[in-house]
Amino acid sequence: MRRMLVTGGAGFIGANFVLDTIDKHPDVEVTVLDALTYAGNRHSLDSVAERIRFVHGNICDAELVERLVGECDTVVHFAAESHVDNSIHDPSPFIQTNIVGTFVILEAVRKHDRRLHHISTDEVFGDLPLDAVDQFTEETAYDPSSPYSASKAGSDMLVRAWIRSYGVAATLSNCANNYGPYQHIEKFIPRQVTNLLIGARPKLYGSGVNVREWTHVDDHNDAVDRIITDGRIGHTYLIGSGDERSNKQIVELILELTGHPTDAYDHVDNRPGHDLRYSNNSTKVRTELGWQPRYADFGAGLAATIDWYRENEWWWTSQKKATEAKYKVLGR
Fold first, then answer.
1. Which terminus of the chain has a smaller tally of CB atoms within 10 A, N or C?
2. 63 is catalytic
3. Which residues contact 284 (CB under 8 A, 6 or more apart)?
């Protein structure tokens, strides 16, 4: 691992991965390829701008991707359209980026015989009952609920097929919900936090009983780093902190941590086909690769995240008006 290409490296998880990689592996030459859609922010990489190569481009551009893959030895594929509400409103960009784009990456990796790690989501597995202790495992059958999760399931299947049919040296990971710095404010936690910071009330889908497993982005990326270095080729690894909370509990904790009454939020219409519960069994990545979450205390991680948004309004204020206008169109 000397020359790394990170697709989607200006997005939330990708940007944090680039920052972490530069810190952990200062000898690695990092190239970031990002289309800079609304969800990408080049300013997230300001602190390492002089230490990376940034290429503004699309993963569906086969000529560009092949050239960049040929110049590296490792590809870490974060680039994706990822917001469920947007996928329900207009699925087409999700099919193009998540499926066609992954195909383009795979063909370039196959041609140049490069190492690939593919980032995915636990949403490909569908959902679990609220009143059970079941968890997703690496063997759980795919059962996606939204256009977003279906497109990610398709991309995962392409990677697996290219491993089996062409011998591509790839690994995959499916992570639980992430939170932390540089997350676009359309997402659940930063939307509620930034609402409070501008004097608005948080919004809760339906009754808020839906449960998610929350993993700090730094913990996710630490697991990815370990998989790239020591993971078994052809294998999938599930990543998750083990901390499950309902959306209602999250909103109430954000309100508590910011000094507001815990009932000071508004209910909005539920998301169509809203998954009930996600929970990853991350035994494999913990036992094989020795990964453990550093942010085992979710409350502390959430408090640090709130502080980051409070201290970095310059990063998100320009996004806020457009984001809330989009939610207004969606009725949420």
1. C
2. no
3. 138, 237, 238
